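Slide 14.
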Amino acid sequence: MSTPPPPQDPGNPERFPPGQGAFGPSRDGRSQPPPHGQPAYGPPPPHGQPTYGPRPPYGPPAYGPPPPPPSSGGSVVLLAFAGLALYSVLNTVIGFFIFVVAMDSRTGATLYVAIGAAVLALIGLGGGVGLLCIRRPWTKGLGLGLLIGWALWSILSAGLCTGLNPSLYA
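Slide 15: predicted structure.
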């Protein structure tokens, strides 16, 4: 029975035959390191396949954490302002229409105001929450804008424009 040859050290060029280096043949017979950016033990496996065998002793790991998703903060803020503007336009148009209809009505003005308040709340609150539940960057911004618009109009008009003021129903 023969003994196996001693393991070859890649850092010691005397252990390789003449003209062969630790990383392949060289022109002058000396051991050559791998080219810049190349791993010492061959190319990495295709994406999604596990890595087998020894890892290179230097350099970055074969696989790192996935890149972070692109930031969508700017689009969310921009669309929040767009949602605020959209609710403001809808509130002005619907509110004006409801008040004109309520003033022309001989009886039942409270009913028109209540219906108008319900429609505006459904648009502002229901639409805003519905868009937030979709969880895409553009729907988050628009949904937040609708919610902010409803709250801002409720505060600034003391509830007159959103139907929260109880004196509207008296």
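Speaker note: Helices lie at 73-104, 109-134, 137-156.
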